[in-house]
Amino acid sequence: MGRDKALLPFRGASLVEHVARAAAEAAGSVMLVGCPARYSHLSYPVVEDLAPGCGPLGGIHTALTVTGADWNLVVACDMPEVTGPFLSALLEAARSADADCLLPSSDSGRPEPLCAVYHRRCLPGITAALERSVRKVTAALAGLQVVGWNPPQPDSFRNVNTPRDWRSYLHG
After folding, report:
1. Which among 24, 33, 137, 162 is least buried, having the fewest CB atoms inside 10 angstroms?
2. Using CA atoms, how far apart are residues 9 and 54, in angstroms rounded to an integer?
3. pLDDT for the residue numbered 164
4. Quick one: pLDDT at residue 28?
5. More confident: 157 or 102
6. What is the DSSP pairing of strand 71-75 with strand 9-10?
7. What is the pLDDT of residues 18-73, one digit of tens each?
8. What is the DSSP letter of 7?
9. What contacts 24+ positions apart, CB below 8 Å, involve 96-100?
10. Parallel, antiparallel or unpaired: strands 146-149 and 101-104
């Protein structure tokens, strides 16, 4: 992206604030994983990544390490279409599933591990994966009870990774 996509201006705030508001609507509370100095001006608690350099899997590891909740909604900061009702449906589906993790599928059928729900019991498996230098989230879930979910709105977790993605999103 060339800059911190979490702080991209979006609907009168930043992209991360938009995603955090949707997550708070669904889950009741929000915690950001990242650099506290970079995000301390936001109105959400920020936890330093305990596994820096390990990508999104390190962020999930951090969230599961510090959480007090059994079920944890994990949402990447770069999903402008995510909404509170969508995340509520995702969280409800996870709570009623017999699983360690609920991964929704995109419209292409690909699992979306960065807009998913993880039970705290995933932590030992994720920790072991990080210790084996696994960085791919779906690979780290091997051995856990993972359930897929076909959401009613699979475009809700469209993400933006490049300046071109962002321009395309903004100008439709």
Report:
1. 162
2. 26
3. 87
4. 93
5. 102
6. unpaired
7. 999 999 999 999 999 999 999 999 999 999 999 999 999 999 999 999 999 999 99
8. G
9. 97/147, 97/149, 98/145, 98/147, 99/145, 99/146, 99/147, 100/125, 100/141, 100/144, 100/145, 100/146
10. parallel
Domain locations along the chain:
5-155
**95: its two tokens:** 């709570």
**Residue 38, token pair as written in the block:** 């970079």
Query: Is the CB of residue 166 less than 8 Å from the CB of residue 160?
Result: yes
pLDDT of residue 109: 81
- Pairing relation of β-strands 46-47 and 13-14? unpaired
* Structural element, H or E, at residue 66: helix 55-66
Taking the C-alpha atoms of residue 111 and residue 88, their distance in angstroms, rounded to an integer, is 18
Specify the fold of 5-155. Spore Coat Polysaccharide Biosynthesis Protein SpsA; Chain A (3.90.550)
> Which contiguous run of DSSP H or E holds residue 55?
helix 55-66
- Please give the share of the chain, as a percent, with pLDDT higher than 70: 98
**The two structure tokens encoding residue 151:** 């959401």
CA dist 23 and 27 (Å) reads 6
